[in-house]
Amino acid sequence: MKIFSKVQLMCKLLSSLVLFSSLVFPQSEDSLFIQSIQTISDTNFVAINDTTAISDSLIATKTTKVDTLFPIQGMPLSDVSTLINKRTFLFDQYRYTGDLLRSFSLNFVKDYGFIGYPNETFIYGIGSSGISYLQDGVFWNNRYTNSLDLNLIQSENIDSIEIVPSPRGFLYGPYNNPVTVNFITRDFISPVPYARIRYYEGPDGEAMIDGKFSAMIAKRWNYSFQLTNRSKDETYKNTELSLWQFNTKLKYFLSNSINLQAYYYFVDKEQGLNGGVDYDSLSRSSDDPRTDLYDPIAAPVFYPNQKLDVLQHNVGLRTLAKPFENSQLDLSIYYRYGLDEFRDFQDSVSINRDEKNKRFGAFLNYYYSFDYITLQLLGDYQKIYTDIHNNYGNSNSEDERYSIAGLLSLHTLDKSLKLSFFYKTLDWITPNMGNYQGVGIDLQYVLNNLFSFYAGYSIREEYRNGEAPSFETGFRFEDSGLLFDARYFSNEYSDYRFWSGGPEIIINYTPVIKGIGLNFNYKFWLFLLETNTSYYIKAKYEGTLGNYIDETVNLPDWQFIGGLYVNDMFFNGNLDLKAGFKFYYTGKINSSVRWWWGSTVVEPTNKLDFNLAGEIQKVAIFYFQWENLFGNEYYITPYYPMPVRNIKFGIAWELFN
C-alpha cells in the first residue's frame, strides 16, 4: 500500500508538469556508429543568449550587448568507440538499461526471466565480472563482485552508450578489465523550463514511470532532477520488484571554457531472489514437469523467502574545461555509499548478510590535438572501505589503487588514416598486490565517411593470470539506406570462482573466447530490415582443477535478432512510424548450473514480437508491444522461465514551456 500511495503521489506531480508544459523539445537523428570526433553534441543542445538592451529616447540608435553561453559537452573515452545514440533505442521496446545494449552485435544477455533480476550481460564474450561499467567516465561497478546490476542505471538519463573496442578496454577504470562500457548522460541546457515523462504498463502489475525537469534558475545556473519508479507484482513465488531512482544536478557555467557540476544519485531497490525453479523437486512431484515448469503456482522455487535490498548514495563534483585551443579536460571527484542487505529464512533459521562499502575516488580525462598528433591522458584513483556482517561474524577490508594511462595517435593521409599507441600502469596499493601494466596498438582508416576499417591488438597483465592478449578487427560500410558492420574478436580473460562448501578452493578458468558479429540494415521504400547476428567459436577453458573444456560456457553458439518494419513519415510528416515484427533466435548454450562446477545444455530457443512506435509531430512517442506472439515456453538460464505472451503499452513526452 505504501508503494501504491507513492506511485499515486508521483503521478500527480508528473501530471502537474504536463499541465504546465505545452511544446516538445525536438529530437535529432542518431544511429549506431563508430565515433570519429572527441565531443558529443547533445540532442537537446541550445546556446543561451543573455541580452541587455539600452535605449535612449533622445537618440535613434540602440546598443545591444549579447552574452552567448555555449555549454561544454562531455567527450567519449575513445575516438574509435561504437556509440549507441538515443535515436537508436528511442523507438525500441526496452525495460531496463541492459536492453539498450542489444543493438551491439557482440552482446548477449543471460536472461533470468523475472523482471528486475540482475541479468548477466556478455560483451565481446566477457561476462559481468570482466566489464568495467562507467557513467560519464566514473567507475560504477560493485566493488565486491566487480560487476553491475544494470537495473540500477536510469535508462531515461542516458543520451548515448559507448562501447570501447576490446583492445582498448583495459585502459579505463581502476581495474584491467578487458571490456569497457561508458554510459554518457544527458547533459544540456534549455532556454526555457524543460520536462520529459515516460510511462509504460504491462501485465502482472509491471509498470515504469519516469519524470525529468530542467530549468535555468539564474543567469549561469542550471538545475535539473529526475525521478524513476519501476514495480512488478509476484508471479512465481518471491519475484516482486520495487525500484526507486532519483538524480539531481546543479550546473554553473563559469564561462565558455569552464563548466562546473555537482550531482547526486539515489537508488533504493527491493527484490525477491528465488533462485529459479527447483526442477529436481518438480520432477519428483509432477507427472509432467516440462509443462508445470511454466506454471507459477505449481512450480516450486529454491528460495521462497530470499530478499536483496540495495541502497546507494552517489555524490560527485565534475569539471569540464577547455584550457587551451583543441583541448578538453574532464575531471570528476566522487563519493559513493552502497549497502546490500541479503535476507533469507530457511527452516526457522534466519540467514543475514550485510555488505556496506564507502568509496572515494577521482577520474581524469585530458585530450589535446595538434595538427597530425593527438594526445590523451587518463587517470583513476579509488579508495574503498568495506564492512561485511553475516551469521558467522564481521569482517572489514580496505582497497586502494590508482592507474595512469596514455594514448598517442598519429594522423596521416589527410587524417583518414590513424595509428595509435597506448599504455597503462595500475598500482594496487592496499592490499599490496603489486603493479599491473598493459600496452597496445591499433589502426583506423576512414574513407569519405562511408567506409571504415579498424584493427587493434593489446596485451595486459591480470591478477593471478599473467599476460592476457586481446585482438579485434572489422570494417563498416554505410550509405543511404544501407549499413553493413562486421567484426571479429579474440579475448583471453581469467574468471575466478570461490567455492566455500569445504576447504576454500579458488577455481580459475582462463578461456580464449573468439567470435564474429554482424549488423546489416537495409531501407527500401517504406520498409526497413534490421539484423543483428553473432557467432561464438568454441574456446578452450583451462581450469585450476585440471579440467579442459572445449565449449563456450554461458554463450550461445550463435544468436540472431532480425526485424522487418514499416518505417517512414506519414500524414504530411506528422507521424514518424516504425511498426513490424522482431524475431529472436538463441542457439545452444552450455549454461553454468552452479558457478563452482559443471554446466547443462540449453537447447535453441526463439520468439516473435510485434512492436509499434510512432512519434506524433515531434511531440510524443507512443509504444505498443505484443511480446512472444506464439506463446513459446522457454528459458535462457536454467531454470528461470522467460515471460509468456503479453502486451505492453506506453508513452514518452518531451516538453518545455
Structure in words:
The protein is mainly beta and 657 residues long. The chain has four helices and 37 strands. The strands form five sheets. It has a 22-stranded antiparallel barrel. Strand 14 (241-253) and strand 15 (258-272) form a beta hairpin. The longest helix is centred in the first third of the chain and has 18 residues, at 2-19. It starts with a helix and ends with a strand. Residues 1-34, 36-47, 50-65 and 497-506 have low confidence and may be disordered.
Could you name the key traits of this structure?
single chain; about 650 residues; mainly beta; 6-stranded mixed β-sheet; 4 helices; 37 strands; disordered N terminus
Biggest beta sheet attributes: 22 strands, antiparallel, barrel
SS element count, helices = 4
The portion of residues forming beta strands comes to over 45%
Average pLDDT rating: 86
Assembly context of the chains: single chain
Please estimate the helix content.
under 10%
Distance between the termini: 35 Å
Structural class by sheet pairing and helices:
mainly beta
Radius of gyration: 25 Å
Note the overall shape: globular
User: Unreliable stretches, pLDDT < 50, 5 or more residues?
Assistant: 1-34, 36-47, 50-65, 497-506
The number of strands is 37
